[in-house]
Structures are given as structure tokens and as C-alpha cells.
Amino acid sequence: MKHTNWLVLILLIALVTVPAFGQDDDGGGAPDGDSFGDEGGGFSVGQSGPKVDPLVDLRNWLAKASAPPIEKKQEKPLKSVYDKQVKLMAESFEKKFGVSLQVALAAQNPARGRRGGNARPANPAHSAEILRLSTLVMDKVIAGLRIDQQSALRKYQSEELRAKEVRLLKERMAAAGIILSEEQQSQVDDVYARKSRLRTLAIIEAKGAPYDRNIAILERQTTQRVVQLLDQSQKAVLSAGVSKPKEPGADAKIPNDKSVAP
After folding, report:
1. Model confidence over 126-152: pLDDT tens digits?
2. Confidence band of 34 (pLDDT split at 50, 70, 90)
3. pTM score, whole prediction
4. Which of 67, 76, 72 shows the shortest CA–CA distance to 149?
5. Is the pLDDT of residue 42 over 90?
6. CA 175 to chain CA centroid, nearest Å
7. CB under 8 Å to 247, separation ≥6 — which residues?
8. Hey, what's the torsion of the CAs at 46, 143, 63, 71, to 10 degrees?
9. Are 226 and 168 in contact (CB under 8 A)?
10. Which residue spans within 150-262 are E strands per DSSP?
11. Distance of alpha carbon 136 from alpha carbon 139, whole angstroms
């Protein structure tokens, strides 16, 4: 039974994993729920072309979150943080790949919207690193806001992610043949509301430092709490899904999370 529950947990992790959000519903990007901004994720950093105010995105995010706007006296310190972090980002990227960040950014979306041509697809490793680094820039700048601004923005961010996660979880469980009762749906809502609150606190308390480890722990706790809400027949449906022969390449759909104890 313990082995079966472990398989159920692994499959449920696959069901509840939310893909990177290339864009919000209204067109603003929010990759993984952690980054706001353009399609590349995070701030629009290091790009060529006319110089733009790096705080434009931040002002828009605060407005969406109904948070207090940036005051004039905050602008200079925030821009200083932004400039410093973008410089560090560019140095880190070039040291890792031997290619300038400017060149990598230019290659991210070549000839967007055009058919044919000789444009090569963006380097996935470059894209992932740009997203990671731009998220770090964003986190450092947001950490420079007043606590009331941070709280409202991070709560909004976590709530947006919560709504998407709950919707996708229910859709994927239904597709797997698992129909949740009204009580279970209410309990799932409560589990994700808890996650949203704790996620907000974890990010704010990080003060711009990496918080991935704490969020990963919270993700596993949330998945385990959802598993506990399922009855034996529902767990059996998930177990049967694990036992079915996999199509070629199907292994890539299930995360290899060795940190989940049997």
C-alpha cells in the first residue's frame, strides 16, 4: 500500500504541475507565476533599441495588484538596484555561456511572426537562464519596495497562480477519470488558499534572495495534502494510470522527483 501511495503521489505531482505561463490572460507575461513582464519573462533587460524606463513594468504590476504606486522618492533607489542587477546578470550570463547577453536576447525571438527565412530557433539553455536571471532581477527590485507595496503585489501574484493551479488540477483530474465531490473541491480550494498565503510570506521574507527551495517544499506539501483528500477508489484510478503501458517519450511527462520519500 505504501508503494501504491508513492505512485499515486508521483502521478498527482504530474497532474498538478503547472506549465510556464508565457502570458497572463490579458497579455502580460507571468512565467511560472513568479515573473511578470514581457514574453521572455521578468523585466525587459539588456535589450537593444530605445532606452525605456525600467520601472514601467513594475508600475503596471502594482496597478494590477491595486497596490500603492511608486512615489517619486522611490524611483532613484529602485533604478539603482535595477541597473546593478542587470549588470551582474549580463556578467553571469557571459561567464556561463561565453556569449553576451545582448546577443542571446536578440536571438530569442528572431523574425517573430514571419514564415520561412533562415532564422534559427532560440537556444533553450539560453532562454532558461535569461528567465532565471531576469526573475532574480525582478525579485531584487521588488524587495526594494515598501512592505505594503510588496505585500499587495506578491499576494496578487500568488492568487493568480492559485486560481490557475486549482483550475488545471480539477481539469486534469476529470480527464484522468477522477470526479471530485463538492466537499473535496472545497477542501482543495482550502489547500491551495493555504499555499497561496505561505508562498506570499516565503517570497517576502526572502527579501530578494533565492526562495526556490522553500517554494519546492511548499509544492510537495500541497500535493501531499491533495492526495490525502482522495478516497481509495480515486487513488486506485491514479495507480491504474501509472500501471498502464507508456507511449514512447511518456516518461518525460512525469517529474523525476527523488526528494519525494516513498
Report:
1. 999 998 998 999 999 999 999 999 999
2. very low
3. 0.73
4. 67
5. no
6. 23
7. none
8. -90
9. no
10. none
11. 5
